[in-house]
Amino acid sequence: GCLCSYFNENQYPDEAKREEIANACNAVIQKPGKKLSDLERVTSLKVYNWFANRRKEIKRRANIEAAILESHGIDVQSPGGHSNSDDVDGNDYSEQDDSTSHSDHQDPISLAVEMAAVNHTILALARQGANEIKTEALDDD
Question: What are the DNA-binding region positions (predicted)?
Fold first, then answer.
């Protein structure tokens, strides 16, 4: 629990900071007169992993939120209020090395499957957001 406030302060703690966080956590979970087992004890490595996972999770959520907004036709990237679709035409994507380029060569089927999977995830999350829905209702696909 005590990790969250550290995370809000600094998402990339260095070794010394991770040690400090680990010690703080151990102080919280330490029962008087009882030594923490290796499993319970927080180490700087555990802190490191926690932070890495937390960053990934936040990024994933941001991506999903962006995807949801986009699927509702809300333009995410351009705060200027104009649609950013007109900037895209100027760029030649074939030169780019990053992960977007390989999707051009992907066969349409697997692309469709991928899109379906993404949409499914978004739907599931959107439904999950409406907490009133009981999980049983999701099973009758």
Answer: 3-62
